[in-house]
Amino acid sequence: MKASGFHTRHLVVVGLGLMGGSLALALRDHADTITAVELSLEARQYALDHKIVDHATDDLRAGVSEAETVILAAPVRAIQSMIERRIGSYLRSNTLLIDIGSTKQDICEAMGRLPVGIHAIGGHPMTGKEHSGVEASDGKLFRGRPFVLCPTRRTTPATRIRALNLVEAFGAGPFEMEADRHDHLVAAISHLPYILSSALVATVAQEGKADATVWELAAGGFRDMSRLAGQDVQMMGDILSTNTQAVATLLALFRVQLAMLEAMLISRDDQKLADFLRPTREARLNWIQHHENGHRNGSK
Amino acid sequence: MKASGFHTRHLVVVGLGLMGGSLALALRDHADTITAVELSLEARQYALDHKIVDHATDDLRAGVSEAETVILAAPVRAIQSMIERRIGSYLRSNTLLIDIGSTKQDICEAMGRLPVGIHAIGGHPMTGKEHSGVEASDGKLFRGRPFVLCPTRRTTPATRIRALNLVEAFGAGPFEMEADRHDHLVAAISHLPYILSSALVATVAQEGKADATVWELAAGGFRDMSRLAGQDVQMMGDILSTNTQAVATLLALFRVQLAMLEAMLISRDDQKLADFLRPTREARLNWIQHHENGHRNGSK
Questions:
Q1: How far does the CA of residue A133 sit from the closest CA of chain B (Å)?
Q2: For A13, phi and psi rounded to 5 degrees?
């Protein structure tokens, strides 16, 4: 791991799921004290028992009042609500506030209305795991992965430096961009894929009503294509409803590609079909090679 | 492994890729002699060197002339062409002829025009592997997986028994059905997913022209959803062009589901959206549980 300039006296992680637990583990050596704010007693107890955090409370105000760095690791709507309704008045001036919500425009706008003096910046680590919950926490989850940073009206040059140092401490690669650009890009690579996966499963489920054998025959291709449909509905509903415009745009663009494929298929123009599929295949192969190399090399 | 009644004097596998090699390995103890027919010298040499087969030739007529059992393990169009143009006159009466092509209607129709006396039946093992080529051969590839059998006009009751014994020798679970039903089901779980994966990659590639960062941020969700787009274009083109009607039907059904999701999204009807996504998620979770249990237990 690279040497990192990030150190904080008191880190507070709000939300103890896979992400919150992993953030705490990754920053173990970069914080004097780590406190978790989490409503679930079981999650708090697990994190204390496994020394993921030093202190845990269900009281947001008490938890963050002495913080130097606060990371909001809750679902998008919960993050937004904390920023809009409460946390501004609980934080000391000069606190670094960062979130890891999956959409950034609404959150960054809310951050922009926080009291002057709070160092607020939007964040989104592009990583994840099959399993959720604090039990799946992994301090290496962010290594070699992109970590998007989105400026807000409460992001000063000093905020930016602190956030970049934080990203470096995670072993992640920083990508600084405006929130709307982030939301458009993740609509393409994350939210559209989720919708396609769900619509595919819904289609197969309809087929299954007429002929249940469809489920018996489904194999590896369907497994991969249906995985995202198994994600938490509340979490994904939050994400989609805070990124409606970008997702609708990407859906429209997707339909163009799908319609072209369909026209070639129905007209039995095998040559055109192959001419469409070949560069698409190349694009995928190039990406996976780059992606897996990036992963192997750890930090970019 | 269960005891199997299948034994053959002389097995011929036509086509030495992942599937052909795996079929030969799986039947090692069920055949006195195994011959491969394959145009590639390298593949033949590899299979001989690794004792996957006993003999290898590039001459279809010479290869199959003494066969008791012939398995056609080539791409769909190549199988169809062999059946239509040549193999009927090369085979001895009473030979069991089975194929493993991914679509069954065209192949089974062609089989129905073979000389009377040839025991022909369509087959499709619902399995696969990330890697292709004879080097990836795996004798356990079929264990615990479905193996579809589709009757033809050259399928007698005796043909059926021989084919069922063959499937048992693979450790696979037989699913007997008409070719058109097979083609409709695989359109839903295999060909539609391929088209969606390709259209998704094409959409992201279009986005990438305006903002190449989209490739940098793509993570696990996109990896799964784009994998099928990396499949061999010639192979998939064959499959799609021999299953146009079913694929077009499934595309139309998919668009209905997609349009419903889109309407809920754009109208910001979060409740309806959740009501749609929840049973979809359940269907996926139920399937994966069943699928992985089936896999663990080996033969069903």
A1: 17
A2: -105, 120
What is the distance between the alpha carbons of residues A193 and A133, in angstroms, rounded to a whole number? 23
**Helices B244-266 & B233-241 angle (0-180, nearest 10):** 100
Structure tokens at A75: 């679902």
In tens, the pLDDT along A178-230 reads 999 999 999 999 999 999 999 999 999 999 999 999 999 999 899 999 999 99
Residue pLDDT, tens place only, A55-113: 999 999 999 999 999 999 999 999 999 999 889 999 999 999 999 999 999 999 999 99
pLDDT-derived band at A300 (thresholds 50, 70, 90) equals: very low
Closest Cα in chain B to A211: B185
Using CB atoms, pick whichever of B186, B219, B285 lies closest to residue A217: B186
State phi, psi for B255 to the nearest 5 degrees: -60, -30
pTM (two decimals): 0.93
Interface confidence (ipTM) of the complex: 0.93
Angle, to 10 degrees, between the axis of helix B192-210 and the axis of helix B244-266?
50
Query: What is the predicted pLDDT for the residue at A260?
Result: 97
User: From CA A246, how far away is CA B75, in angstroms rounded?
Assistant: 40
Interface test with B, best of A18, A194, A203, A292 (most B CBs within 10 A): A203
Where are the domains positioned within chain B? 8-177, 182-267
Q: Cα(A180)–Cα(A178) distance, rounded to whole angstroms? A: 6
Q: Can you say whether the dihedral through the CA atoms of B167, B168, B172, B176 is positive or negative?
A: positive
Residues of chain B with pLDDT under 70: 1-4, 294-300
Facing residue for B251 by CB, picked from A217, A244, A262: A262
Neighbours of A115 (CB within 10 A): 11
Please state, in angstroms and rounded to a whole number, the distance separating the CA atoms of residues A210 and A216. Answer: 13
CATH number listed for the domain at residues A8-177: 3.40.50.720
Same CATH fold assignment for domains B8-177 and B182-267: no
Length of chain B: 300
Q: What is the CATH number of domain A182-267?
A: 1.10.3660.10
Pairing state of beta strands B119-125 and B146-150?
Answer: antiparallel
pLDDT of residue B40: 97
